[in-house]
Amino acid sequence: MYKALTCVLIALVGITSASNVFNVKSYNIQQVASPFAQPELRLTLCPACIDIADRSINVLLELILDTGIIGSCSALCQALGQKTGSAILATVCDLVCDVVGIDEFIKMIDKADIDPIWYCEIAKMCPINDHGDAKFTKFTIAPASGPKGTTFTFDFAYTSVNGTGTGELDIDIQCPDKIPIGTGFLLEASKAGTYGQKVTVKAEPDPHCDPTQEMCEEWLPGTYNVTIQVCNGECGSKHPHSAIYDTVKGSFVLTK
Ligand SMILES: *[C@@H]1O[C@H](CO)[C@@H](O)[C@H](O)[C@H]1NC(C)=O
Ligand SMILES: *[C@@H]1O[C@H](CO)[C@@H](O)[C@H](O)[C@H]1NC(C)=O
């Protein structure tokens, strides 16, 4: 086990970190470089592991559905390594599966009950802080209204007294046509302090959205309700080490 972990650590260094890693993603929503300092001790291992988890979870589900009975962690994780051609994915899978046990692991994958942050916390690659906290101290949307094509900027900050665990910043927009759009950003565990972020939303149809495959936001005139959450773990996750620290709401108006 110890040897395997060393291999992972070395191999991970070469992987670029992912910042936009969660299930719901919208092309329209972009993170602007933060005017506040990022956590001083930047742990590159955690984002790399989140990327690994993202690449693993669906393939694990396919393997379980295709092959039926899989008796051991090593058999399942080896199959993952073979299917993806990545030994690192297999090694991290082994770390998580060994902790939760093969039966529980399969059950969780079957129920689509695995989120990448929890996966990487169990693998001991993302730090856990269950005494963390965060409160929003600022949230503005500018401009307040504009025509289709306008770029709206969400400017917000939150303060943490105890620091934060590995978590997520989740942005959801309720649109007049009821098509939900949103995105989530990984928040690496941080020390106490005030952290600011700017996110832009361009109110124009996503050129990557294929209306034959999915519903595409048209950006009709009306009021768009925005909800931003800062969370320990993935927002909405039912796993341990998960909680919503705080929520802010706002809105903007598309005039035509
Ligand atoms: C902050 O940490 C202290 C000590 O661990 C704990 O007692 C307190 O409940 C924490 N605050 C929050 C908001 O979790
Ligand atoms: C936005 O919020 C307002 C007030 O809560 C509500 O009346 C309206 O239906 C919401 N709009 C959308 C598109 O969800």
From TrEMBL:
Q: Where is the Saposin B-type domain?
A: 42-130
Q: Which UniProt keywords apply?
A: Disulfide bond, Signal
- Report the superkingdom from the record: Eukaryota
Keyword Membrane in annotation = no
Which PROSITE patterns does the record cross-reference, listed alphabetically? SAP_B (PS50015)
Q: List the SMART domains hit by this protein, alphabetically.
A: SapB
Leader sequence range is 1-18
Q: What is this protein called?
A: Saposin B-type domain-containing protein
Write down the species. Answer: Adineta steineri
